[in-house]
Design a protein that fits this description.
single chain, alpha+beta, Protein Transport Mog1p, Chain A, Thrombin, subunit H, 2 domains, 24% helix, elongated
Length: 552
Protein backbone atom coordinates (compact mmCIF):
# COMPACT_ATOMS: atom_id res chain seq x y z
CA UNK A 1 0.00 0.00 0.00
CA UNK A 2 2.79 2.45 0.92
CA UNK A 3 4.57 1.74 -2.37
CA UNK A 4 1.32 2.25 -4.28
CA UNK A 5 0.64 5.62 -2.66
CA UNK A 6 4.23 6.75 -3.26
CA UNK A 7 4.13 5.72 -6.92
CA UNK A 8 0.82 7.54 -7.36
CA UNK A 9 2.19 10.69 -5.69
CA UNK A 10 5.32 10.77 -7.87
CA UNK A 11 3.27 10.21 -11.01
CA UNK A 12 1.15 13.20 -10.04
CA UNK A 13 4.21 15.39 -9.50
CA UNK A 14 5.34 14.63 -13.02
CA UNK A 15 2.10 16.14 -14.38
CA UNK A 16 2.79 19.73 -13.38
CA UNK A 17 4.01 21.42 -16.59
CA UNK A 18 2.12 24.54 -17.66
CA UNK A 19 -1.20 23.69 -19.22
CA UNK A 20 -1.98 26.87 -21.13
CA UNK A 21 -3.65 28.64 -18.21
CA UNK A 22 -5.06 32.15 -18.23
CA UNK A 23 -2.54 33.39 -15.64
CA UNK A 24 0.24 35.88 -16.30
CA UNK A 25 2.98 36.67 -13.79
CA UNK A 26 5.52 39.36 -12.97
CA UNK A 27 9.04 38.63 -11.78
CA UNK A 28 9.84 40.66 -8.62
CA UNK A 29 11.75 43.87 -9.33
CA UNK A 30 15.49 43.29 -9.63
CA UNK A 31 15.21 39.49 -9.79
CA UNK A 32 16.73 37.35 -12.53
CA UNK A 33 14.42 34.89 -14.27
CA UNK A 34 15.91 31.42 -14.69
CA UNK A 35 15.29 29.36 -17.83
CA UNK A 36 12.39 26.92 -17.46
CA UNK A 37 10.69 24.45 -19.75
CA UNK A 38 8.45 27.25 -21.03
CA UNK A 39 10.54 30.44 -20.57
CA UNK A 40 13.98 31.32 -21.92
CA UNK A 41 14.91 33.24 -18.79
CA UNK A 42 17.59 35.89 -18.34
CA UNK A 43 20.96 35.01 -19.92
CA UNK A 44 22.68 36.75 -17.00
CA UNK A 45 21.27 34.19 -14.55
CA UNK A 46 24.42 32.08 -14.28
CA UNK A 47 25.73 32.63 -10.75
CA UNK A 48 23.21 30.27 -9.16
CA UNK A 49 23.40 26.73 -7.75
CA UNK A 50 23.60 24.20 -10.62
CA UNK A 51 20.84 22.11 -9.06
CA UNK A 52 18.54 25.13 -9.04
CA UNK A 53 19.12 25.65 -12.75
CA UNK A 54 18.42 21.97 -13.33
CA UNK A 55 15.21 21.99 -11.31
CA UNK A 56 13.94 25.14 -12.99
CA UNK A 57 14.00 23.27 -16.31
CA UNK A 58 12.34 20.06 -15.13
CA UNK A 59 8.89 21.05 -16.37
CA UNK A 60 7.24 21.34 -12.96
CA UNK A 61 7.73 25.11 -12.65
CA UNK A 62 6.17 27.76 -14.85
CA UNK A 63 8.46 30.52 -13.57
CA UNK A 64 11.57 30.64 -11.36
CA UNK A 65 13.49 33.78 -10.37
CA UNK A 66 16.17 34.70 -7.83
CA UNK A 67 17.63 37.82 -6.28
CA UNK A 68 21.15 38.06 -7.78
CA UNK A 69 22.67 39.93 -4.83
CA UNK A 70 22.26 37.16 -2.22
CA UNK A 71 22.43 34.13 -4.53
CA UNK A 72 25.69 32.32 -5.24
CA UNK A 73 26.62 29.00 -6.82
CA UNK A 74 26.42 27.43 -3.35
CA UNK A 75 23.36 29.07 -1.80
CA UNK A 76 20.10 30.81 -2.61
CA UNK A 77 19.00 34.26 -1.51
CA UNK A 78 15.48 35.48 -2.16
CA UNK A 79 13.48 33.36 -4.60
CA UNK A 80 10.19 33.32 -6.49
CA UNK A 81 8.56 30.43 -8.29
CA UNK A 82 5.21 29.44 -9.75
CA UNK A 83 3.63 26.00 -9.96
CA UNK A 84 0.35 25.62 -11.82
CA UNK A 85 -2.39 23.09 -11.12
CA UNK A 86 -5.05 21.70 -13.40
CA UNK A 87 -7.65 21.64 -10.62
CA UNK A 88 -9.39 24.67 -9.22
CA UNK A 89 -12.11 25.37 -6.69
CA UNK A 90 -13.39 27.64 -3.97
CA UNK A 91 -10.69 28.30 -1.39
CA UNK A 92 -11.48 27.74 2.28
CA UNK A 93 -9.47 28.33 5.42
CA UNK A 94 -9.82 24.67 6.35
CA UNK A 95 -8.31 23.45 3.08
CA UNK A 96 -5.52 26.04 3.17
CA UNK A 97 -4.61 25.04 6.70
CA UNK A 98 -4.60 21.35 5.85
CA UNK A 99 -2.17 21.95 2.99
CA UNK A 100 0.02 24.18 5.18
CA UNK A 101 0.32 21.47 7.82
CA UNK A 102 1.01 18.85 5.17
CA UNK A 103 3.75 21.00 3.66
CA UNK A 104 5.32 21.55 7.08
CA UNK A 105 5.22 17.80 7.64
CA UNK A 106 6.91 17.32 4.30
CA UNK A 107 9.75 19.61 5.31
CA UNK A 108 10.07 17.78 8.62
CA UNK A 109 10.34 14.50 6.72
CA UNK A 110 13.40 15.92 4.96
CA UNK A 111 15.06 16.99 8.19
CA UNK A 112 14.12 20.67 7.93
CA UNK A 113 12.17 22.11 10.86
CA UNK A 114 9.16 24.04 9.55
CA UNK A 115 6.79 26.24 11.54
CA UNK A 116 3.51 27.52 10.11
CA UNK A 117 3.40 31.17 11.15
CA UNK A 118 0.05 32.14 9.68
CA UNK A 119 -2.68 30.94 7.32
CA UNK A 120 -5.35 33.31 6.09
CA UNK A 121 -7.89 33.86 3.32
CA UNK A 122 -7.71 37.18 1.46
CA UNK A 123 -9.50 38.65 -1.52
CA UNK A 124 -7.88 39.18 -4.92
CA UNK A 125 -10.21 40.42 -7.64
CA UNK A 126 -12.96 39.68 -5.12
CA UNK A 127 -11.93 35.99 -5.14
CA UNK A 128 -10.92 34.06 -2.00
CA UNK A 129 -7.21 33.17 -2.14
CA UNK A 130 -5.02 31.63 0.55
CA UNK A 131 -1.84 33.05 2.07
CA UNK A 132 0.49 30.83 4.09
CA UNK A 133 3.56 32.11 5.92
CA UNK A 134 6.10 29.54 7.07
CA UNK A 135 9.53 29.58 8.70
CA UNK A 136 11.90 26.78 7.67
CA UNK A 137 15.09 26.12 9.61
CA UNK A 138 18.12 24.21 8.33
CA UNK A 139 21.82 24.25 9.06
CA UNK A 140 22.18 27.52 7.16
CA UNK A 141 19.63 29.43 9.25
CA UNK A 142 15.93 30.28 9.05
CA UNK A 143 14.12 31.15 5.83
CA UNK A 144 10.67 32.67 5.60
CA UNK A 145 8.34 31.58 2.83
CA UNK A 146 5.04 33.14 1.88
CA UNK A 147 2.89 31.12 -0.46
CA UNK A 148 -0.25 32.25 -2.30
CA UNK A 149 -2.78 29.90 -3.91
CA UNK A 150 -4.75 31.68 -6.63
CA UNK A 151 -7.83 30.01 -8.15
CA UNK A 152 -8.71 30.57 -11.80
CA UNK A 153 -11.42 29.40 -14.16
CA UNK A 154 -9.39 26.63 -15.77
CA UNK A 155 -6.80 25.90 -13.11
CA UNK A 156 -4.90 27.39 -10.18
CA UNK A 157 -1.48 28.83 -9.46
CA UNK A 158 0.78 28.52 -6.42
CA UNK A 159 3.15 31.49 -6.03
CA UNK A 160 6.02 30.98 -3.55
CA UNK A 161 8.17 33.85 -2.31
CA UNK A 162 11.04 33.19 0.10
CA UNK A 163 14.12 34.83 1.61
CA UNK A 164 16.29 34.52 4.71
CA UNK A 165 13.97 35.54 7.54
CA UNK A 166 16.05 38.59 8.44
CA UNK A 167 15.81 39.85 4.85
CA UNK A 168 12.19 38.96 4.13
CA UNK A 169 10.67 42.33 5.04
CA UNK A 170 13.21 44.07 2.80
CA UNK A 171 12.00 42.07 -0.17
CA UNK A 172 8.32 42.15 0.81
CA UNK A 173 7.38 45.30 -1.17
CA UNK A 174 8.83 43.74 -4.34
CA UNK A 175 7.00 40.50 -3.57
CA UNK A 176 3.73 42.39 -3.18
CA UNK A 177 4.17 44.24 -6.47
CA UNK A 178 4.81 40.92 -8.16
CA UNK A 179 1.74 39.36 -6.58
CA UNK A 180 -0.55 42.25 -7.39
CA UNK A 181 0.58 42.26 -11.03
CA UNK A 182 -0.62 38.67 -11.43
CA UNK A 183 -3.64 38.35 -13.72
CA UNK A 184 -6.02 35.48 -14.25
CA UNK A 185 -7.45 35.18 -10.74
CA UNK A 186 -11.16 34.50 -11.08
CA UNK A 187 -14.06 32.61 -9.61
CA UNK A 188 -14.10 28.90 -10.51
CA UNK A 189 -16.92 27.61 -12.73
CA UNK A 190 -20.40 27.74 -11.23
CA UNK A 191 -20.86 23.99 -11.16
CA UNK A 192 -19.42 22.20 -8.10
CA UNK A 193 -15.65 22.26 -8.45
CA UNK A 194 -13.09 21.20 -5.87
CA UNK A 195 -9.34 21.26 -5.65
CA UNK A 196 -7.60 17.95 -6.11
CA UNK A 197 -6.29 17.70 -2.55
CA UNK A 198 -3.13 15.76 -3.40
CA UNK A 199 -2.29 17.91 -6.41
CA UNK A 200 -2.82 20.98 -4.23
CA UNK A 201 -0.55 19.62 -1.51
CA UNK A 202 2.24 18.55 -3.86
CA UNK A 203 2.16 21.84 -5.77
CA UNK A 204 2.65 23.68 -2.48
CA UNK A 205 5.44 21.33 -1.45
CA UNK A 206 7.27 21.66 -4.77
CA UNK A 207 7.04 25.43 -4.64
CA UNK A 208 8.32 25.42 -1.08
CA UNK A 209 11.20 23.05 -1.71
CA UNK A 210 12.56 25.10 -4.57
CA UNK A 211 11.94 28.31 -2.62
CA UNK A 212 14.04 27.32 0.38
CA UNK A 213 16.78 25.67 -1.67
CA UNK A 214 16.91 22.68 0.69
CA UNK A 215 19.35 20.76 -1.52
CA UNK A 216 21.88 23.60 -1.24
CA UNK A 217 22.15 23.32 2.54
CA UNK A 218 21.28 19.72 3.36
CA UNK A 219 22.90 16.47 2.29
CA UNK A 220 21.26 13.09 2.78
CA UNK A 221 22.08 9.43 2.26
CA UNK A 222 19.39 6.79 1.81
CA UNK A 223 19.35 3.08 2.23
CA UNK A 224 16.79 0.61 0.87
CA UNK A 225 14.66 -2.03 2.44
CA UNK A 226 14.12 -5.54 1.13
CA UNK A 227 11.29 -4.52 -1.19
CA UNK A 228 13.40 -1.84 -2.85
CA UNK A 229 11.28 0.96 -1.38
CA UNK A 230 13.17 3.97 -0.11
CA UNK A 231 14.05 3.25 3.48
CA UNK A 232 14.91 5.36 6.46
CA UNK A 233 17.34 8.23 6.30
CA UNK A 234 20.80 7.38 7.52
CA UNK A 235 23.79 9.45 8.49
CA UNK A 236 26.05 10.69 5.68
CA UNK A 237 28.67 8.11 4.76
CA UNK A 238 31.47 10.44 5.86
CA UNK A 239 30.17 10.19 9.42
CA UNK A 240 30.12 6.38 9.40
CA UNK A 241 33.34 5.39 7.64
CA UNK A 242 36.89 6.64 7.08
CA UNK A 243 37.24 9.30 4.43
CA UNK A 244 37.65 7.98 0.91
CA UNK A 245 40.24 9.30 -1.46
CA UNK A 246 39.10 12.01 -3.83
CA UNK A 247 38.12 10.69 -7.27
CA UNK A 248 36.33 12.08 -10.27
CA UNK A 249 32.63 12.21 -9.40
CA UNK A 250 31.04 13.34 -12.64
CA UNK A 251 29.29 10.68 -14.68
CA UNK A 252 29.83 10.65 -18.43
CA UNK A 253 28.10 8.97 -21.35
CA UNK A 254 30.53 6.08 -20.84
CA UNK A 255 30.55 5.78 -17.03
CA UNK A 256 28.30 5.92 -13.97
CA UNK A 257 29.43 6.84 -10.45
CA UNK A 258 29.26 4.16 -7.77
CA UNK A 259 27.49 5.51 -4.68
CA UNK A 260 29.38 3.09 -2.41
CA UNK A 261 32.99 3.99 -3.26
CA UNK A 262 32.63 7.06 -5.46
CA UNK A 263 34.55 5.55 -8.37
CA UNK A 264 33.53 5.71 -12.05
CA UNK A 265 32.27 2.40 -13.50
CA UNK A 266 31.90 1.50 -17.20
CA UNK A 267 28.33 2.04 -18.30
CA UNK A 268 27.99 -1.59 -19.52
CA UNK A 269 28.53 -2.96 -16.01
CA UNK A 270 25.63 -3.24 -13.55
CA UNK A 271 27.89 -3.60 -10.50
CA UNK A 272 31.08 -1.96 -9.25
CA UNK A 273 34.09 -4.00 -8.07
CA UNK A 274 33.27 -2.91 -4.51
CA UNK A 275 29.82 -4.47 -4.79
CA UNK A 276 27.86 -1.27 -5.32
CA UNK A 277 25.03 -1.58 -7.81
CA UNK A 278 24.05 0.82 -10.56
CA UNK A 279 21.03 2.99 -9.82
CA UNK A 280 19.03 5.09 -12.22
CA UNK A 281 18.29 7.62 -9.50
CA UNK A 282 20.86 10.22 -8.47
CA UNK A 283 21.22 10.83 -4.70
CA UNK A 284 19.30 14.09 -5.17
CA UNK A 285 16.39 12.41 -6.95
CA UNK A 286 16.36 9.58 -4.42
CA UNK A 287 16.10 12.12 -1.63
CA UNK A 288 13.31 13.96 -3.42
CA UNK A 289 11.44 10.69 -3.97
CA UNK A 290 11.88 9.77 -0.32
CA UNK A 291 10.62 13.18 0.77
CA UNK A 292 7.53 13.00 -1.41
CA UNK A 293 6.74 9.48 -0.20
CA UNK A 294 6.95 10.43 3.46
CA UNK A 295 5.08 13.71 3.01
CA UNK A 296 2.30 12.25 0.87
CA UNK A 297 1.71 9.43 3.33
CA UNK A 298 1.82 11.72 6.36
CA UNK A 299 -0.56 14.20 4.75
CA UNK A 300 -3.36 11.65 4.56
CA UNK A 301 -3.73 11.64 8.35
CA UNK A 302 -3.03 15.29 9.19
CA UNK A 303 -5.53 17.11 11.41
CA UNK A 304 -7.06 20.38 10.35
CA UNK A 305 -5.57 23.16 12.45
CA UNK A 306 -4.32 26.74 12.34
CA UNK A 307 -2.14 28.97 14.49
CA UNK A 308 -4.15 32.18 14.57
CA UNK A 309 -5.19 33.20 18.12
CA UNK A 310 -7.26 35.84 19.80
CA UNK A 311 -9.27 35.21 22.99
CA UNK A 312 -9.02 33.60 26.42
CA UNK A 313 -9.77 29.89 26.56
CA UNK A 314 -12.07 30.31 29.58
CA UNK A 315 -14.28 33.07 28.15
CA UNK A 316 -17.17 33.02 25.71
CA UNK A 317 -16.57 34.37 22.22
CA UNK A 318 -19.88 36.25 22.37
CA UNK A 319 -18.44 38.54 25.06
CA UNK A 320 -15.69 39.70 22.71
CA UNK A 321 -18.14 40.19 19.84
CA UNK A 322 -20.40 42.25 22.09
CA UNK A 323 -17.53 44.46 23.28
CA UNK A 324 -16.55 45.26 19.67
CA UNK A 325 -19.89 47.01 19.05
CA UNK A 326 -18.56 49.93 21.11
CA UNK A 327 -15.50 50.44 18.87
CA UNK A 328 -16.93 51.08 15.41
CA UNK A 329 -14.01 53.22 14.22
CA UNK A 330 -11.89 50.04 13.91
CA UNK A 331 -11.99 48.81 10.30
CA UNK A 332 -10.74 45.87 8.24
CA UNK A 333 -8.45 46.58 5.26
CA UNK A 334 -8.41 44.04 2.43
CA UNK A 335 -4.70 43.58 1.63
CA UNK A 336 -2.77 40.32 1.03
CA UNK A 337 -2.17 38.74 4.43
CA UNK A 338 -4.87 40.89 6.06
CA UNK A 339 -4.78 44.29 7.71
CA UNK A 340 -6.64 46.61 10.05
CA UNK A 341 -6.91 50.33 10.76
CA UNK A 342 -8.84 52.96 12.67
CA UNK A 343 -10.71 56.07 11.58
CA UNK A 344 -9.06 59.05 13.33
CA UNK A 345 -10.67 61.84 11.28
CA UNK A 346 -13.64 61.98 8.94
CA UNK A 347 -11.44 61.16 5.92
CA UNK A 348 -8.37 59.57 7.54
CA UNK A 349 -7.54 56.03 8.62
CA UNK A 350 -4.45 55.25 10.68
CA UNK A 351 -2.83 51.85 10.10
CA UNK A 352 0.58 50.17 10.05
CA UNK A 353 3.27 50.93 7.49
CA UNK A 354 3.14 47.31 6.35
CA UNK A 355 -0.51 47.72 5.39
CA UNK A 356 0.28 51.06 3.77
CA UNK A 357 3.05 49.55 1.64
CA UNK A 358 0.70 46.76 0.58
CA UNK A 359 -1.96 49.28 -0.48
CA UNK A 360 0.53 51.41 -2.43
CA UNK A 361 1.71 48.34 -4.33
CA UNK A 362 -1.81 47.51 -5.54
CA UNK A 363 -3.01 48.76 -8.90
CA UNK A 364 -6.53 49.29 -7.56
CA UNK A 365 -6.56 49.57 -3.74
CA UNK A 366 -9.76 48.14 -2.25
CA UNK A 367 -12.45 50.32 -0.78
CA UNK A 368 -12.80 50.34 3.01
CA UNK A 369 -16.17 49.53 4.54
CA UNK A 370 -17.53 51.78 7.29
CA UNK A 371 -20.76 50.24 8.54
CA UNK A 372 -22.66 49.59 5.30
CA UNK A 373 -20.75 52.21 3.29
CA UNK A 374 -17.76 51.44 1.04
CA UNK A 375 -15.36 54.37 0.64
CA UNK A 376 -12.56 54.45 -1.91
CA UNK A 377 -8.96 55.30 -1.04
CA UNK A 378 -7.58 58.54 -2.50
CA UNK A 379 -3.97 58.37 -1.25
CA UNK A 380 -1.68 56.50 1.16
CA UNK A 381 1.15 58.06 3.19
CA UNK A 382 3.72 55.75 4.78
CA UNK A 383 5.89 57.22 7.55
CA UNK A 384 9.23 58.07 5.89
CA UNK A 385 11.29 56.78 8.85
CA UNK A 386 9.81 53.28 8.80
CA UNK A 387 12.07 50.35 7.97
CA UNK A 388 10.78 46.79 7.38
CA UNK A 389 12.89 45.33 10.19
CA UNK A 390 11.70 47.82 12.81
CA UNK A 391 8.56 48.49 14.85
CA UNK A 392 9.39 52.19 15.19
CA UNK A 393 7.41 54.44 12.83
CA UNK A 394 5.35 51.45 11.66
CA UNK A 395 2.52 53.79 10.67
CA UNK A 396 0.67 54.85 7.56
CA UNK A 397 -2.20 57.23 6.88
CA UNK A 398 -4.96 56.45 4.40
CA UNK A 399 -6.69 59.45 2.82
CA UNK A 400 -10.27 58.60 1.88
CA UNK A 401 -11.99 59.92 -1.23
CA UNK A 402 -14.94 61.13 0.88
CA UNK A 403 -16.17 61.23 4.45
CA UNK A 404 -16.46 57.86 6.12
CA UNK A 405 -19.88 58.65 7.53
CA UNK A 406 -19.17 57.33 11.05
CA UNK A 407 -17.64 58.82 14.19
CA UNK A 408 -13.85 58.95 14.29
CA UNK A 409 -11.64 58.40 17.36
CA UNK A 410 -8.98 60.99 18.17
CA UNK A 411 -5.31 60.11 18.61
CA UNK A 412 -3.79 60.30 22.09
CA UNK A 413 -1.20 63.05 22.57
CA UNK A 414 0.13 62.75 26.13
CA UNK A 415 3.15 60.64 27.16
CA UNK A 416 1.74 58.87 30.22
CA UNK A 417 0.57 55.57 28.70
CA UNK A 418 2.50 53.32 31.12
CA UNK A 419 0.10 50.98 32.92
CA UNK A 420 -2.92 51.93 30.82
CA UNK A 421 -5.66 49.35 30.41
CA UNK A 422 -6.50 49.36 26.72
CA UNK A 423 -8.92 47.68 24.32
CA UNK A 424 -7.81 46.21 21.00
CA UNK A 425 -10.36 45.64 18.22
CA UNK A 426 -10.02 43.72 14.95
CA UNK A 427 -11.83 41.58 12.37
CA UNK A 428 -9.42 38.76 11.42
CA UNK A 429 -8.88 35.19 12.53
CA UNK A 430 -10.12 34.07 15.92
CA UNK A 431 -9.31 31.20 18.26
CA UNK A 432 -8.24 30.54 21.83
CA UNK A 433 -4.88 31.83 23.01
CA UNK A 434 -2.36 28.99 22.78
CA UNK A 435 -4.46 26.75 20.53
CA UNK A 436 -3.62 25.69 16.99
CA UNK A 437 -7.12 25.98 15.57
CA UNK A 438 -8.88 28.99 14.12
CA UNK A 439 -11.79 30.24 12.11
CA UNK A 440 -12.23 33.32 9.96
CA UNK A 441 -15.71 34.79 10.09
CA UNK A 442 -14.74 38.49 9.72
CA UNK A 443 -16.72 39.42 12.83
CA UNK A 444 -15.43 42.35 14.83
CA UNK A 445 -14.06 41.40 18.26
CA UNK A 446 -12.54 43.47 21.03
CA UNK A 447 -10.56 42.49 24.11
CA UNK A 448 -8.57 43.99 26.96
CA UNK A 449 -4.93 44.10 27.97
CA UNK A 450 -2.52 46.27 29.93
CA UNK A 451 0.54 48.21 28.76
CA UNK A 452 3.48 46.57 30.54
CA UNK A 453 6.52 48.18 28.92
CA UNK A 454 6.88 51.63 27.43
CA UNK A 455 9.68 52.99 25.26
CA UNK A 456 9.90 56.34 23.42
CA UNK A 457 8.24 55.02 20.24
CA UNK A 458 6.51 51.72 21.07
CA UNK A 459 4.84 49.90 23.93
CA UNK A 460 4.44 46.21 24.69
CA UNK A 461 1.65 44.16 26.24
CA UNK A 462 2.41 40.71 27.59
CA UNK A 463 -0.08 37.86 27.37
CA UNK A 464 -0.68 36.71 30.92
CA UNK A 465 -1.94 33.55 32.57
CA UNK A 466 -5.54 33.26 33.85
CA UNK A 467 -4.65 34.40 37.36
CA UNK A 468 -3.26 37.80 36.27
CA UNK A 469 -4.84 38.38 32.85
CA UNK A 470 -7.51 40.94 32.12
CA UNK A 471 -11.02 39.49 32.26
CA UNK A 472 -11.33 39.62 28.46
CA UNK A 473 -7.65 39.43 27.51
CA UNK A 474 -7.08 39.38 23.74
CA UNK A 475 -4.22 39.19 21.25
CA UNK A 476 -4.05 40.29 17.64
CA UNK A 477 -3.02 37.84 14.92
CA UNK A 478 -0.66 38.24 11.96
CA UNK A 479 -3.69 39.04 9.78
CA UNK A 480 -4.62 41.97 12.04
CA UNK A 481 -1.54 44.18 11.78
CA UNK A 482 -2.59 47.81 12.05
CA UNK A 483 -5.45 47.24 14.49
CA UNK A 484 -5.95 49.97 17.12
CA UNK A 485 -5.47 50.00 20.87
CA UNK A 486 -8.07 52.26 22.54
CA UNK A 487 -7.82 54.05 25.87
CA UNK A 488 -10.77 55.58 27.71
CA UNK A 489 -9.77 58.58 29.83
CA UNK A 490 -11.37 59.50 33.17
CA UNK A 491 -13.49 61.96 31.20
CA UNK A 492 -14.96 58.92 29.36
CA UNK A 493 -13.46 60.26 26.13
CA UNK A 494 -12.01 57.56 23.88
CA UNK A 495 -8.56 57.80 22.25
CA UNK A 496 -6.34 55.72 19.96
CA UNK A 497 -3.09 55.11 21.85
CA UNK A 498 -1.46 52.41 19.72
CA UNK A 499 -1.32 50.62 16.36
CA UNK A 500 -0.49 46.89 16.27
CA UNK A 501 2.92 46.21 14.75
CA UNK A 502 4.25 42.71 15.59
CA UNK A 503 4.39 39.89 18.14
CA UNK A 504 7.40 38.40 19.90
CA UNK A 505 7.23 34.63 20.23
CA UNK A 506 8.85 34.21 23.66
CA UNK A 507 8.19 30.47 23.66
CA UNK A 508 9.42 29.89 20.07
CA UNK A 509 6.44 27.59 19.50
CA UNK A 510 4.99 29.35 16.46
CA UNK A 511 1.77 30.37 18.23
CA UNK A 512 0.52 33.39 20.13
CA UNK A 513 0.69 32.08 23.68
CA UNK A 514 1.01 33.03 27.34
CA UNK A 515 4.28 34.87 27.88
CA UNK A 516 4.45 36.35 24.36
CA UNK A 517 4.57 40.11 23.90
CA UNK A 518 2.64 42.18 21.40
CA UNK A 519 4.23 45.38 20.16
CA UNK A 520 2.25 48.53 19.37
CA UNK A 521 3.45 51.84 17.95
CA UNK A 522 2.85 54.71 20.37
CA UNK A 523 0.54 57.07 18.50
CA UNK A 524 1.46 59.98 20.81
CA UNK A 525 5.08 59.78 19.64
CA UNK A 526 3.98 60.42 16.05
CA UNK A 527 1.11 62.85 16.60
CA UNK A 528 3.08 65.66 14.99
CA UNK A 529 3.70 63.65 11.81
CA UNK A 530 0.02 62.71 11.70
CA UNK A 531 -1.06 66.35 12.01
CA UNK A 532 1.43 67.65 9.44
CA UNK A 533 0.58 64.93 6.91
CA UNK A 534 -3.14 65.63 7.17
CA UNK A 535 -2.68 69.39 6.94
CA UNK A 536 -0.38 69.13 3.93
CA UNK A 537 -2.78 66.80 2.12
CA UNK A 538 -5.65 69.22 2.63
CA UNK A 539 -3.48 72.12 1.40
CA UNK A 540 -2.46 70.18 -1.68
CA UNK A 541 -6.07 69.34 -2.43
CA UNK A 542 -7.12 72.98 -2.17
CA UNK A 543 -4.21 74.11 -4.34
CA UNK A 544 -5.15 71.54 -6.96
CA UNK A 545 -8.70 72.87 -7.00
CA UNK A 546 -7.50 76.44 -7.47
CA UNK A 547 -5.03 75.39 -10.15
CA UNK A 548 -7.84 73.64 -11.94
CA UNK A 549 -9.98 76.77 -11.85
CA UNK A 550 -7.13 78.99 -13.01
CA UNK A 551 -6.49 76.73 -15.99
CA UNK A 552 -10.12 76.34 -16.98
Amino acid sequence: MRAAVATWAIALVASFPAFGSDFTYKVPDGFLELPTATHAGDPKATNVPPQLLKDAKNGRYVLVAVDPDLTTTNSVGATFNVVEMKSTGHMTKELARKVADATAQGFSSSGLHATVVDVSIVKMNNVDTSVTTMDIQDNAGVRRMRQYVLPGRNGSAVLSYSAPRGDFERFYPAFLRSLNATTGVSEPPTEPRRFNWTEFFLAGLLGGLLGVGWWATKKFALDKDKDGEAGKEVAPAAALAPAKKEVAKRATKYTWICEECGNPVPIRLEQCRCGGKKTRLTPYRKTMRRLLQLAALAALALPLSAPALLIRADREDAEYVEMATKYTSAVSIDVPGGGEGVLIDKRWVLTSARVGVALKSMKAPPAIRFGTRDVKIQAVYVHPAWRPDSNSADLALIYLARNAGIDATEVYRKDDEAGFTVVIAAHGDTAKIGERSARQDHKARAGINTIDRLSPRVFAMELKGPETASDLQAAFTASETGCPAYYQAESKELFVVGIASSSRDANSNGTVDIGDSQIFVRVSAYARWIDETIQQAYKDEVNDLFDGKNHS
